[in-house]
Design goal:
alpha+beta; Beta-Lactamase; 4 helices; Heme-binding protein; PduO/GlcC-like
């Protein structure tokens, strides 16, 4: 899945980091594209972790924090931001993806398109 996401990113002229995690939020694959900035490493992993542990795409988490003024503070490894999505088989969550390095819109589109390919 990481290679698929990187292929999409290349076609879209993005320079991102991609993290893939299992159901429990454990890192199973990571790729940093040449030219992706250093800060996207931790951010992409945190987005994948957030999606896995909360069981939903991070854009939903981001919107809830933003619109409800939730006092999330700093929870290690959790990032309520666009760019994270879950992988599903039927209704079961079987993993997640996180990406960072571009705009919210580009990152969210990349993870959603990758998650669709997973099914």
């Amino acid at each position: 899945m990481a290679n698929y996401a990187i292929g999409l990113a290349e076609k879209r002229h993005l320079k991102v980091c991609v993290a893939i995690e299992d159901t429990d939020g454990n890192l199973v694959a990571f790729i940093r594209m040449q030219g992706a900035y250093a800060g996207c490493v931790d951010a992409s992993i945190a987005k994948a972790t957030s999606a896995a542990r909360f069981g939903r795409n991070t854009i939903e988490f981001f919107e809830a924090v933003r619109t409800q003024s939730l006092p999330i503070g700093f929870v290690p490894g959790i990032l309520p931001a666009a760019g994270g999505a879950v992988f599903k088989q039927g209704d079961a969550i079987v993993g997640s993806i996180g990406t960072s390095g571009d705009t919210n819109e580009a990152e969210q589109a990349l993870v959603i398109d990758t998650a669709k390919h997973f099914r």
